[in-house]
Amino acid sequence: MSRHSYYIAALLLLLAASSCRKDVQVFINEDTSLDTAANNGFAGFYLLNEGNMGSNKSTLDYFDYTTGKYQRNIYAAINPNVPKELGDVGNDLAIYGGRLYAVINASNKVEVMDARTAKRIGQIDIPNCRYIKFDQGYAYVTSYAGPIQVNPNYTQKGFVAKIDTATLQEVDRCIVGFQPDGLEIANGKIYVANSGGYMGAGSSDKYERSVSVINLATFREESRIDVAYNLHHILADKRGDLWVTSRGDYKQLPSRLYFIDKTQQKVTDTIPVAAGNYHLDGDSLYIYSTEWSYVTYSNVITYAIVNTRTHAVVSRAFITDGMDKEIEIPYGIVVHPVTKDIYVTDAGNYVSPGMLYCFSKDGKKKWSVRTGDIPAHIVLLPKS
Amino acid sequence: MITFLAFIGTHSYGQKTNRDSTLVDSAGVRTLRGVTISTIAYKEVIPSQKLTGEQLKSLNSFSVADAIRYFAGVQVKDYGGIGGLKTVDMRSMGTNHMGVFYDGIQLGNAQNGQIDLGKFSMDNIESIAVYNGQKSDIFQPAKDYGSSGTIYLRSRKPVFDSATTTHLKGVFKTGSFDLINPSLLWEQKLADNLNLSLSSEWINSSGRYPFRYKRVYHNTGATAWDTTAIRQNGDINAWRVESGLYGRLNRGIWNLKTYFYDSERGIPGAIVNNVWKRSQRQWDRNFFVQGSLQQNVAKGYDIQVNAKYANDYMRYLNPDTTLMYIDNNFHQQEWYASIANKYSVSKHIDINLSTDFQYNTLDASLDGFAFPKRLTSLVALATAAEFGKVKMQGSVLGTFVNEKINRGNSDTAVAAPSKNEITPAFFISYKPFARADFNLRAFYKNIFRMPTFNDLYYTDIGNISLQPEFTHQYNLGFAYRKTRQGSLLSEWQLQSDFYYNQVTNKIVAVPKGSGMYRWMMMNIGEVEIRGVDVVGDLAFTFPKDILLNIRAAYTHQTAQDFTTRKNPELQKVTYGGQIPYIPWHSGSLIAGIQYNTWRLNYSFIYVGARYQNSANIPENYEQPWYTSDLSASKNFQLKRCRFRVAGELNNLLNQDYEVVVNYPMPKRNYKIILSVEL
Lengths: 384, 678
Description:
The complex is a heterodimer. Chain A is mainly β.
């Protein structure tokens, strides 16, 4: 054979050598030291990263106050036997009765874990599930995937599922409006913010504009409160009055914050701030908003603090060191009830990792850390 | 004769050109049992690769996309299965920068700019050529100058010897995925200067295949989980009917072609936790009719006229009651006409002036849709010069785009402003030695892709202020060929190119507002690509007429994302990272051995480690994958009928791999092909 044959053999060898392919390993978490140990009444907090739809990259991070360490992507390391890990698009996170509940929207399930260890206990299958709240041993989960009607247009209402947390079985369903999102339990009622998100894309008047009021005892919808188009979050302050956010129609109608008086059961105040997401600490409602401007072709990001007692806009900036100019898409917010540290996440471009920022109560950055894709939902873990 | 066959693959780099004849497609081409052999006349000024004849036929390919994987510098995004979407990206510039030409005229998709090459069956394809920059021949429509890279698909053309006037060919393919794929070809000599061809095909497949995901513990290597499932909703049912009329005139040739494709398929979708089956469906109906005429008008002056009408319908249905119900129809139309004039100034200099007009419309059943219409005028002025050892080509393309819309969202009820772009390209090649078949080549090309109708007008995400996305290509390379008649290694050839590409103004979807995955298309991306392509061909002639052809291709690419971001901390994570799904190393090998009427072919594809995202972190790491395919065929003759029996074995080593994350590819699979020709 000629020497060229050796070249071929060499090429083949090269290809064979470079083609190392090993079995894929389970993800192991990466730990980053961020802070000194702190004694603030909580053991730590979990952060749920949503992950872009179809990527199956919803991941769970944990910050440990006892060590000051941030543990990224812990779910697979703790639950190595779960095929395809945590799932696709984590939409809500909550702790109840020693358990951690992660609502995984595009995986059509609520993942139930031990709150201390994040070890998987089981799952509750709910198609297109959105948000979760708890009361008296039951979990209440909103879902877009209710009954279908074709008369003549295709419409599909959403529902609230009632789940027995002891058995993890769905025990009842209550039909609400189109595409229900946030829910709140107060005053013996479940309040559900209906969005109509699937309906309003073409014409804004097809969005939902009401809060469904469900009687907790009968678990039946008893009334609707008219608020504004395309509602998203709802929460009750310590007086039992409700604060609802509207996304607006992304065109003329801006995002707004609405106040529902619990006794009158209607909107009695509109706060002139855009509200994408918020966190309530005492009487202070920490709000941020991201709205697209068709004038500048960029996102307009605003921050505000509203006093829920006086309804006054107390502050227009709770980040004071200039970092607010760098955050691309604020996506999650939590205020530590003891230290008043403000945690804000940056979802960046949605397809690559985001950041978690910790600001002191006077708005100065303490630390930041890389998270998973679309860091979104934070829940504090009380000390045992 | 048989010796000659062996060179089909290796000779194919030398693209034919006819500098004085209008009979570009028939002169200088001899035909041997349906195999077109190009003459070795002219070294291309522009780097190109071509697969044709037996070598192409022996590749285990379901579609054109499968065959294109063997070219250097080309990456195919494959979502798996026979019906799955397959798009092509050349030198990492992005799939929208590729121009795909079918029998000389570009396939359009004004809606999203992507041509799904999985839809083009290999059944009637005779050759596939890939060019970086543009085709070497300057006598071409202005559109041919308008892409960063081009793929030319040529369907089989009827060629008759003096004794026959009719060809009939029937092919039946079956195998894994419950595939049933019969096809029929009828070729008729209607008159001395007029041939007809009619080709039709039916593809039916359940698209079902087993796939497997497995994870191991990092410390022990023991299995953590291991799941095998069946890929579902990947079924396809498709018809293709194609006809061609090929005529010869006094000092001219013409052809008229119609193409019809109708399909229904499942969209298998991403495999994610708790969701192992999807139910989305897609219907496609593509029709086009196109004609081409080349005529020598006077001495040294030739014209080429091309025209096309295309009518494309697509329906997307999401019947999944847990998700948003979607039933959308899209209807695109395209009218296209082109005149190219070539004038030979002297024996050494040719000038070409081409003028094209194209009109595109898109209708959709979407709420708030804008119904865009686009008129594109293109003018290309090109010249080719040949001075002994040096050959040069220069071209300037003017593109003028005007758009109108009917109605839409109140915010975007305005059409995008008109765009006028002038873009140059320059190519040079140098042959330093009189004897040795060695030449150096270099080129620079600046071109752009228009924002698509979706980029500009899609309800909610469209952005009418988008600018075109530009590429700048710099290339330096060489080609060397050596023929040694009578020796064991009868011919070998090596070509290699080094390149630096820049993509500026890259159109990227960015998050818009908050929540619900809302996006806006923006010109924010910057990508730089540094790469090298190497292609080698070897032809061996052993005693007893055993022929061995080996072709190897290797690509190294660093394709970095230099997009600046608002958040410097996030920029650190993505800046300078390798862009999604571009491996640093990739390569292929094809080895075909022929003895008498037997042929055995081995093909190998290697795609190295990649990341799913510019954030090159472990979570985004994608394993290398490599597949070995084997095919064997035997030709025999019974009376007047020529038979071919072939068997194909794909993914021989049964590798579980993914080209795109969460889209598992088939394990080992097979296909049987029976073909009769008379």
